[in-house]
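tool=predict chain=A
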Amino acid sequence: MATLALGLALIVAVLSLQPLARSQTRKLLDGLKGVKADFSDVHVSIFPLRYRITHLKIREEKPKTKEPVFYAEEIAVTVRWSRLLTGHLAGTVTGQKAKLVLHQPPEGSQIRLPPIEEVVPFPGILKRGQIDGSEVLYVWVREKNQPSVWFHDIVATLENVGSRPDLVEGLMVLSANGRVQRSGTMTVQVTADPYATPLSFAGKASVSRFDPAEMNALIDSTQGVKLTPGRFDMQMSFECRKGRLHGWLEPRLTRTQLTAADGDVGSALKAIFGKISLSVASPADGTDSSGRITFEDDLTDPKRQLWPTLEKVVENAFLLGLQESIKRNVSPRDKRDKASSNKEPTKLEIKR
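tool=predict ok
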């Protein structure tokens, strides 16, 4: 009888938790500034101790695109009883079919993420987070026809993250892979100390079978400039210690050519890649005879944040590799495989 009574008490407790969890979730989402959020349902279980929300959708109050800025078919947070009983909140997070839409920031603006202490207002440890079948869409909302780059079929894991310094031992570990646009695949692996100042991280990334012609929607606003179909592959490795970034990349491009209405390929390259000094006749600084390019940058500014900086390292390296590959394809054959005269690494120019 005692066992039956305990079982009934647990059932009643679980059933009473469901409406409370829904109302508290609604209250939390309604308190978010600048956005409107909705969801289908919330489920809570005791064994295992798990919170699950389905069809979570977040829209801007003044939307820049027709899509919500975030959607997830399901997010589940599982807390470990063993750690909770010793006064520690630790667990795992899983997400299914999530989609994040990022918008082009205003010219000259700086992306600042809120401190993790605001996002997670209590000491907690993420042992492992994982998303499957997910997407990231970057939209140039200030350009004609709002061109975009689409990353999809993403599988990613994030491990060993504490909401406060010194809650975990060892480094944070990120691993992700997915598809780029219609043709390419991309992988990224990173280890980092998320609380280090200056920044401290290391990683590698690769792009395979990407067709540069899929960027034509983005460069369409540059009159008379077009990339022909081809294949782009690139490997890169990077390390930042005490704010000093060093790395290398190896780009390979086949078939793709750059066409310009006025025949000035140098001006066309500058129109597309703008940020980096261009000379069709000479390779980037730090290029050896095999085509490998070394790069560096000064990231010692204590105001730098890890995640925006990581994103820019990969993005700028991708653009540098693609730019140099196109330059090689349009350069005279006797100059394509020459090393640069300046052996110093190229400055990657990571803006804060």
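The CA atoms of residues 225 and 268 lie 6 Å apart. The longest strand covers residues 125-139.
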